[in-house]
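look at this record:
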Amino acid sequence: MNSDIITYLKSCFLYVKGQPVIFTQLYFWGFFAVVLGIYSLIYKKNTLRTLFLLLVSFFFYYKTSGVFLILLIFTIISDYNWGRLIFESKSDKKKKVYLTISLLLNLTLLCYFKYAYFFTESVNQLAGTDISFFNHFTQFSNTFLGTKDPVDKLILPVGISFFTFQSISYTIDMYRGKITPVKSIFDYGFFVCFFPHLVAGPIVKANEFLYQIYQQYSLTRKEFGYAIFWILNGLGKKIMADYIAVNYIDRIFDNPNYYSGVETVFGIFGYSLQIYADFSGYTDIAIGIALLLGYRLKTNFKSPYKAQDVSEFWKRWHISLSTWLKDYLYIPLGGNKKGTIGSYICIAFLSIVLVMLTGKIWLLLVLLLIAIVLVLLAYFFPKVKQSVNTNINLLVTMLLGGFWHGSSWLFIIWGGLNGVGLVVHKLWQKISPFKESNSFFVKGTMVFITLAFISFTRIFFRSDSLDTVSLIFDRITNHFGGALTFNIIQGYALVFSVILVGYLIHWIPENIKEKYRLKFAELPLPVMSLVAVVFVFCIYQMVSGEMQPFIYFQF
């Protein structure tokens, strides 16, 4: 019995490989209850609450990603000091040097953990070498911390993209003069690793959050109700996402040859709902938890499948990443006005990535030939030059956004297709006869076309290989099986009902959604508690098997 208790306590306080802490676990809510209990005693003292939440966030990340806590602490110490040096420097040249060092350190770490294995394999493929990948961080961990992880494997730290982007925003905003340094390294550490948004966003920019650290705690009765609503809303989305994934979508993408084209199409649209419910569910819970602790995080999703075009979709989807890319990549590259040296450096980098992905040197020659043709066309035809200038940064941003998700042809193609979609929409706007139309039919058609386009680009996002993509398109074009539609709907009646209800709730007008959120927020506390208990009991009836990690943990 004693050994069982000791084992249980170890699992509560020590990192368990392959078992990250997720919001849908009972363990997390026990952890959060303890945090709230202690927080209720100290929340009026800003310095003490910041230090407490910093330690809590460190523990949360340790339980989620183990020894990679070292990387998080390194990022905090590094960028806190580079930010201070940028602010204190009187020379613009020195400011640029400090900012450049900060960016290089952050991006080197990010690229190492996300792409080092890919680059090693690509060099071997291109040069015919047999270089073995060696993980130096794992060797350090095994030597000094007693871990026993294989040094020939690359493990991605959970949330590294999110906390790296947040930290980068601090030094850039400091360089731009938008913010002043935080009062202490503890304040900065808290900004970077505040646990609700640490591992999957929303990405918090320095100029949008730092001021809250120094404000007194405040939470109105209505805000408390909203916080509970967002937590329940997020839990409902996540449970629904896992249910339709386990019972239908994963089967389609894992074995597309076993299913007809009709089933595949249902799976594609189902996946769009799944990834939205999964990702926005996480951020809903994060927003609710942060609000209970007195901090306001910005909305990360605004019903993206109501979008009538691709441009509007990206203004509604993963807003924190979209705005981050816009503020710190797209606009610095020149926006829609012109291509800059940075634009062409990015294109050169992406070209190298494509060559490494294929392992074909001849592709580099093809890309150079395309570049020469475009330069000549731009030189002799002013309209071509103008078109290149206004669209090049859009394409570069979307391609880099795809590469951010992973070193794979699939993510590059997905990003490229969305970039092309944005460019085509810009051109269509100039000639569209429906631009000013208020027709419900026209708007509904545009919503469906946008959803269909976004969903079909996600075939590349969700598939594990180009072979799987090919099989999926083959099932749709050559084995559609339209006559089986009714039988398929009958066979998957419950799953399809959940998908349909999910989309219908998504499409409810925003003013109606706000009304029932407010109604819930203003319920008497005993009634709110009862509703919450009944809701949680009902949604957990849909749980099948072990809780699934959030999709964006892998990015």
The longest helix spans residues 92-127.
